[in-house]
Amino acid sequence: MVIQTSGYYEKAFHIRQRPRYPNLKFDGKADVNKEQVNCRKFYKTYSQKRQTGGIMACWCTHSICYGFHIIPVGEGRNDVFSALITRWPKAPDRVVYDFACALGPYCWAREPDFFANTQFVIDGFHAAGHTKCSKAAFLKTYSEIDSSLNSINTSAAECGNSSLTRIRKPVSYMTQEHAVLYSWVFISIWNHLITRLGPPFRSMTNT
Could you tell me if 8 and 67 are in contact, meaning their C-beta atoms sit under 8 angstroms apart? Predict the structure, then answer.
């Protein structure tokens, strides 16, 4: 087991380096230095330059955390892209994300082959404010055709991320190395409880 000072992915090992794209002006930079994005909500969120750092975690639909890494400023598309391209041997079939409307083009512009069959969608909870975005960016659009998509637990990440607020204050006083270790212990316990105790524990986390 290796816990890096920047983060740890227990369920997704580091398998490749993040490629560089020198022809893309803002590649690899935080979204406060954004490329042109047509989403009004995305622009409003990141153009304020008030986003602070924290933890970016990847969750499955059962609220199991695949891993996390520390981010210096507000979470952006590069954080999600970098996690997927460096940890997943095959791109996931579907990525549910607050700003999937902007994440999809970001990923396809950099790795069109790797993400060729990946669907990037916004869940119903975060749909508000995406007034200028294509209907193709919303999970609801596909659910109207394929009712089985309604069974996807799109609130899993919100449930997991809300649990991380419990360690936000103590982590803010730690060095990055200690913060990563502390976060890893917390998330490991979280995953254990979700796995062992099942639905009763999951229902308690939503209260």
Answer: yes
Q: Hey, what are 40's tokens?
A: 């009004």
CA 180 to chain centroid, in Å, comes to: 17
- As a whole number of angstroms, the distance between CA 52 and CA 192 comes to 29
**Residue 119: other Cβ atoms inside 10 A:** 17
| Residue 182 pLDDT class (50, 70, 90 cuts) | very high
pLDDT (tens digit per residue) in 184-201: 999 999 999 988 876 445
CA geometry: angle 163, 153, 87, nearest 5 deg: 70
Terminal-residue alpha carbon distance, the chain: 33
DSSP 183: H
Domain residue ranges in the chain: 7-205
Integer angstrom CA distances of residue 22 from 36, 83, 134: 17, 19, 29
Give the pLDDT score at 77: 84
Strands 65-73 and 94-96: what pairing? unpaired
pLDDT above 50 for 137: yes
Residue with tokens 């230095």: 33
Torsion 63-65-70-73 (CA) sign: negative
Other CB atoms closer than 10 Å to residue 73's CB: what's the count? 18
